[in-house]
Write a structure and sequence with these properties.
- The protein has 94 residues and is mainly alpha-helical.
- The protein has one domain.
- It has helices at residues 16-34, 40-58, 69-90.
- Helix 1 packs across helix 2 and helix 2 runs antiparallel to helix 3 (69-90).
- The N and C termini lie far apart (44 Å).
């Protein structure tokens, strides 16, 4: 949906930033379980780069989308918060 020319509108849908935060928090969780040996920093960087790619692609005029750097920032913060909290919870107790 990130690159659909005119994404479908849902009545009462949450704000754009909430959608970004939920999507990238979910991607962070999935990424952590899919790649458990990958460092938290690398996973955050990879997801952040994916978010940046989406925003750059949305700037293509024919898509009639709005590119917003704050969306990318929201993506990065959401996945970072979830991944750091997850790693703290899953860290072996001493």
């Amino acid at each position: 949906m990130a690159l659909l020319p005119h994404p479908p509108e849902v009545p009462g849908e949450p704000s754009d930033k909430i959608q970004h935060a939920v999507a990238f928090a979910t991607l962070g969780l999935l990424g952590a379980f899919a790649y458990p040996r990958l460092s938290t920093v690398r996973l955050i960087l990879g997801l952040s780069m994916f978010g940046a790619f989406i925003e750059v692609a949305q700037a293509i005029p024919v898509l009639h989308r709005d590119s917003d750097p704050l969306d990318w920032l929201t993506d990065t913060i959401a996945c970072a918060v979830v991944l750091v909290l997850l790693r703290m919870c899953l860290r072996p107790k001493r």
